[in-house]
Prior knowledge:
The chain folds into 2 domains: 5-13 and 256-381, Aspartate Aminotransferase, domain 1, CATH 3.90.1150; 17-254, Aspartate Aminotransferase, domain 2, CATH 3.40.640.10. Helix content is 41%, strand content 13%. It has helices at 17-23, 39-59, 72-84, 100-111, 129-135, 158-167, 187-190, 239-254, 256-276, 302-311, 331-335, 340-343, 357-381, and strands at 5-6, 66-69, 91-95, 115-119, 142-144, 171-175, 194-198, 209-213, 280-281, 292-296, 314-315, 346-350. The strands form 3 sheets. Strands 2-8-7-6-5-3-4 form a 7-stranded mixed sheet, sandwiched between helices. A 3-stranded antiparallel sheet has the order 9-10-12. The protein has a two-stranded parallel sheet with strand order 1-11. Strand 6, helix 7 and strand 7 (194-198) form a beta-alpha-beta unit. Helix 9 runs parallel beside helix 13. It is globular and about 70 Å long.
Amino acid sequence: MGLPVYFDHNATTPVDEAVLAAMLPYFRESYGNASSRHEWGTRARKAVDAAREQVASALGVQPPQVIFLSGGSEANNLFIKGAAAYLKPSQVTVSAVEHPCVMKPAQELARQGWTLRTLAVDSAGRLDPQHLDAALAGPGGMVSVMLANNETGVVYDVAAVAEKARAAGALVHTDAVQAFGKIPFDFSSLNVHALTISGHKFHGPKGSGALVVDKRLALKPLIQGGSHENGLRAGTENVPAIVGLGMACELAAGRVTEYGSRLGALRERLERGLTGMGATIFGQEARRLPNTAYFAVPGIDGETLVIQLDQAGFAVAAGAACSSGSTQASPVLKAMGVAEELGRGAVRVSLGWDNTPEQVDGFLGALGAVAARLRGLVAVAV
């Protein structure tokens, strides 16, 4: 068997060689503290400033709107908790399929006197427009709807949500962690007050991310201390990670169109094969990220399938990496009304820049063999 094939790019991605090359000098030669006034510090500060310009350019904003953080979870928490600190308790509205780092802070606000509204989705994972209108008819507060789902890959019309939310007087945020670098967009086109990205989802380093904010948005910092990041994130800047994030953003923005074309063709190839073997593909009727296929082979447990496929040389996931180990169906699939038994069979394939048609064909062959073997074991047990 050759080298294992990595089909789990929604969980994390390998660091691009150009990103690594940009980062390396800031571990050793230019290792200064970006807040120091001497030459080493000046070099580090210039690197941070350049990275901020790269991120800003990729998202169509001004550099001061970019707040460097440790990743998507911190950025989402900073918006929800930081904005809530300056608002009177009213309504916080999130979709039923949000990542836990949005859902859990929203639930915490509910324990502090806020009203939590959860936007329903249909069987394809799309937002229910009638439910959205009803939810936004209430008090303003804040709204957070992800740009693309990490499990199904379903893409949401955040701009339409933002238009309605702003009309209701709400602050609007989108978790764009899974979407950035996979589909084209910019900050202004989404019409939001804040947007989250995370470097390791698009070939940047882990521990790097940003919250991009409207210049008029007031947030209370989660971490207090020094005046770093315009007073919104105290602590010595992680210069290598910030440099890596900037380079990864520049690369991702420059190849997003080619990414969509190449990965979309690979996913179509994969899903033709999945359909041919009787698999159910979740969210297939909706607009989705070009790299993501979420499916179940009826009668076969997803965790078991993932383990068997790993042994066959293919790394895939049974849902989101942050929820691994759970024996229950994904909350995302439950929100879509997927039956529990089928939901427990869910497997996510998330393709990446370097994957090939030959790898997809090899995966389909391995999946067919593994599924036949597992069905045979079930038949013997019965």
